[in-house]
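User: New here, please read:
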Amino acid sequence: MSANTEATGQQPTATDEARKATENSAFIKACRREPVPHTPVWFMRQAGRSLPEYLKVREGIPMLESCTRPELVAEITMQPVRRHKVDAAVYYSDIVVPLKAIGVDLDIKPGVGPVVADPIRSRADLDRLRDLTPDDVSYVTEAIGLLTAELGSTPLIGFAGAPFTLASYLIEGGPSKGHERTKALMYGDPQLWADLLDRLAAITSSFLKVQIEAGASAVQVFDSWVGALAPADYRRSVMPASSKVFEAVAGYGVPRIHFGVGTGELLGLMGEAGADVVGVDWRVPLDEAARRVGPGKALQGNLDPAILFSTQEALEAKTREVLGAAAGLEGHVFNLGHGVPPNTDADVLTRLVDYVHTQTAA
């Protein structure tokens, strides 16, 4: 029974029962810092990109449209579970889906990423960001219903973009290396910045709630670009909104994961923001990451994705390094230090999952 069900005194629903079936999985146990039969493995961006079966079913279908087709979403989400035998599925979507759902004029352009037609630059622009309702993303609820029925005891990870990263896309109008406009607004109009991040925190929280209430067993918040900030700026201008997201879903009792890229100097603060699991990219060894994050958190990561293109011997050696650094952790979920590159040989990932399971079997 979920924390939410216990709090209301209601009878368990089909969603509660589906989530209960995943409670003893290695992934959920690792997130909760409990003993596991083996180190669980999943990969960011495992659903799609590198899989030939994904390219086949997505052929001719724009990215954002594919995210609104429940049966297609379920099929793509299941593909890496069937092929790689990973310990968790991750819901196939994109962090800008909730923005599109509330009417933001944006598209995902191949080779570029999300592009916003009318960037947010003033207080008047803020009014375009209305609240997200479950009806706006009814296809998410339908897709997760299909998935939990098929996944059984395998957990499903829902996810959303963190307020800072969503704000960066909205302000810059697309991907940015320097985030100049974003930082200019953050420094130059701190009240507008705070109001924007609060609005995005509400949207992100609503999107996560939809996924959890539909049956997701855990959620991850992606703050892909927050590594561009100094710790003092993160604490003052970003952490309050991120904390609101984690607090908004705390009552459901599902593990909450927080991940960003280039966040070595922010790991302690990201732990303070409220997640149960802190994702670590490949730049900081896991034992050092644990020192920075502090006790009471599981860690996720952190194999360098580039090693997927090297020899099997090199891959196994680097994997042993990661597992060795994780040996003393309270809880560890094996993952890459970033997403699966699109030109990855899918068979390499399958062998990697098997190798981690074999090396860590109790």
User: Anything to note?
Assistant: The CA atoms of residues 5 and 104 lie 34 Å apart. DSSP finds 18 helices and nine strands in the chain. The mean pLDDT is 95.
